[in-house]
Amino acid sequence: MASVVVVGGGAAGLSAAYYLHQAAPHLRITLLEADARLGGKITTVAENGFLLEGGPDAVVRYKPWALELVHQLGLQSEVVGTLPAHPSALIHDGREALPIPAGLQMVVPSDLGALARSPLLSPFGKARAALELLIPRGPAEDEPFGAFIERRLGRQVWQRLVAPLSGGIYGGDPYELSTLAAFPQLKALEQQYGSLIRGAMRQRKERGSREKGQLFASLKGGLGSLVEALRTQLTGVEIRLNTAAQALEHSNEWRIHTTQGTLRADALVLATPAGMSGRLLEPLHPEAASALRQIPYGASSTVTFAFAQEKLPPRAGHGMLMAAQRGFSVRGFTWTDQKWPGRAPEGYSLVRAYFSGLEASQTELAQLALGDLARLWGQVPEPVHTWVFHWSEGLPRYTLGHQERVSRALRAEALPGLFLAGAAYYGVGLPEVIRMGKAVAMRVLTYIGTPAHAT
Question: For residue 435, what is the enclosing H or E element?
Fold first, then answer.
């Protein structure tokens, strides 16, 4: 019987193991996870009537792969959308919080009326943005994301709108992002429609808007319910927690040396962060290992506070993003109880702060978040409870040159039976990572000559 070892029990490794097992139930599959739990950065806490996410808190509906998996697992009745809000979110420019224009598609305005009414831009900024409809189509080649948006929509749209939004997705300096790697859909809009705004208008008709709760989705029990459902389905799959891969060998088969002994396999899926994959592959494929180590990662953290609701000032929408270089430590706040139904007991509220690129202790992170809230509110009540989550390698950053690095990294798959998966390659969101896990599973089945019976 053919055997497969999947290294990494985050979303990519879990989905790869799940689709392998569904397609070939008799395949011998072993899933290794260095941590004591599965799910990676999917971390849902249910405590004293509060429900909160330490990592990602939503999937986008127009990228269908996560919701397809949810339906396959029989969780469709658990899907929830965001609560309606007008505006859905605001951006704080250092002096005041201003609503994000309605009708955004990703980061592009699709409602010129809403853009014209927005106080976020000056009259000059609005006029420059509207000129985007007349600007000729640019080159198809890659360029820094900040330069791309400034070329199309102007500097003011970049600084006041797009930079805060994109920085909240990828962290770090969003100007340095590779447009083709991080936002290929926007390059495609320019090439297809000759205009980002024109293309965004078309998308809005197809996708709906965040204001109506149609853009984002979660589960009633949080995204951790997805991890629990996947584990339940992995009957017959050997799951080894607290087991880290330490070294790899390959001759006629793969030998995976772990902290708990050595495993043998016909095929190997590395669903680990790029740096870890690079260290494991260094003796076997130095070129790919070097490229993997060159994919930069940034720290990410969340701090969630529970407050007595009566002690909080009014909060608009689902949350607030902070403009860069305006003296804030956090990238943004989410008013969790106003974004999702059923997240806090009656009389209480949940406030979540998001940090990117900041290394600090849990105590320091909580104090920084409270300091920024004090700047917004003037006075902050004592939290009823505080939850802090920190990842030193939080998210891969798709900086300029990312596609070339990924191309070199994936040359490691020339090693017979090796497959790479995860957020480091083609998308950091849960839908993209799940899609890659499934695609890798299908390729593994082709490699070992096992037909896919039930995908």
Answer: helix 430-448
Tokens of 98: 């201003």
Instruction: Report the SS3 class of residue 181.
Output: helix
DSSP 100: P
Identify the H or E element spanning 371.
helix 362-377
**Contact criterion met (CB below 8 Å) for 132 and 162:** no
Instruction: Report angle CA 327, 335, 86 to the nearest 5 degrees.
Output: 100
Q: Is the dihedral of CA 442, 448, 451, 455 positive or negative?
A: negative
Cα 160 from Cα 239, distance rounded (Å) = 47
Query: Is beta strand 348-356 parallel, antiparallel or unpaired with respect to 297-308?
Result: antiparallel
Burial of 235 (0-12, 13-18, 19+ CB in 10 A): exposed
Cα separation of 1 and 3, whole Å? 6
Which residues, at least 6 apart from 183, have a Cβ–Cβ distance to it below 8 Å? 106, 107, 145, 148, 166, 177
DSSP state, 236?
A: T
Q: Count of CB atoms within 10 A of residue 217's CB?
A: 18
Tell me which amino acid residue 188 is: A
Residues in the chain predicted with pLDDT less than 70, given as ranges, are 207-213, 451-455
- Count Cα neighbours of 286 within 13 Å in the Cβ-side half-sphere: 1
Residue 151: C-alpha distances to residues 109, 135, 189, 314, 323 (Å):
15, 9, 14, 38, 20
For residue 433, the number of C-alpha atoms closer than 13 Å in the C-beta half-sphere is 26
Alpha helices in 242-283, H assignment, sequence order: 274-281
Give the span between the Cα atoms of 188 and 148, in whole angstroms. 12
Phi, psi values for residue 73, rounded to 5°: -85, 0
163 neighbors 174 (Cβ within 8 angstroms)? yes
Q: What is the DSSP track for 70-97?
A: HHHTT-GGGEEEPPP-SSSEEEE-SS-E
Q: Tell me: the pLDDT tens digits for 336-387?
A: 999 999 999 999 999 999 999 899 999 999 999 999 999 999 999 999 999 9
Distance, in Å, from the CA atom of 358 to the CA atom of 382, rounded to the nearest integer, reads 24
CA distance 45 to 343: 10
Q: Are 91 and 321 in contact (CB under 8 A)?
A: yes
Please report, for the chain, how many H helices and E strands are present, in that order.
18, 20
Q: What is the rounded distance in angstroms from the CA atom of residue 99 to the CA atom of residue 28?
A: 53
What's the confidence (pLDDT) of residue 135? 95
pLDDT for position 168: 73
Spatial separation of the C-alpha atoms in residues 243 and 441, rounded to whole Å: 22
Contact at 8 Å (CB) between 259 and 246? Answer: yes
Global pTM reads 0.92
